[in-house]
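Per your request, structure below.
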């Protein structure tokens, strides 16, 4: 049995993938940020990400704590959900966001950075057509073959 991880949007955008035996949870706001960045549903499933809602109680604990430390102003709603979910699930939080790391550490949540772990894990991405499957390229846009909006996946 591996660890339970809660992963912030940044590391996921940089291609973070959890080891096979780890549970990888993301709050709904991270999931919608991924969708905003054209990460396909297929890829989200392939990477084994599970959407999990933090409770209102856990969210309130984080807000109250961050208000005391003065971090609340710099935390987005997404940041708060990430920390709340990690605390609630007793998970390891993967984030490179300084404010998120700061609040999480203060709340005794184990935090791990992604960027520091080594450039060798950096991924390359290509744009592909989910419509006809004929086109792959290095630019965002529409498929020159069928006109479908291109999606992104790691090479
Ligand atoms: Zn196409």
């Amino acid at each position: 049995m591996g660890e339970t991880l809660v992963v912030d949007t940044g590391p996921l955008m940089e291609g973070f993938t959890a080891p096979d035996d780890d549970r990888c949870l993301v709050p709904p706001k991270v999931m919608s940020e991924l969708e905003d960045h054209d990460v396909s549903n297929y890829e989200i499933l392939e990477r084994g990400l599970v959407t999990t809602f933090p409770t209102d109680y856990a969210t309130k604990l984080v807000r109250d704590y961050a208000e005391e430390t003065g971090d609340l102003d710099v935390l987005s709603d997404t940041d708060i959900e990430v920390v709340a979910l990690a605390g609630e699930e007793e998970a390891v939080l993967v984030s490179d966001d300084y404010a998120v790391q700061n609040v999480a550490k203060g709340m005794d949540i184990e935090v791990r950075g992604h960027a520091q772990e080594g450039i060798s894990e950096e991924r390359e991405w290509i744009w592909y057509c989910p419509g006809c499957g004929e086109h792959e390229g290095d630019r965002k846009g529409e498929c020159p073959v069928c006109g479908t909006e291109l999606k992104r996946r790691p090479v």
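The two ends are 28 Å apart (CA to CA).

Regards,
D.
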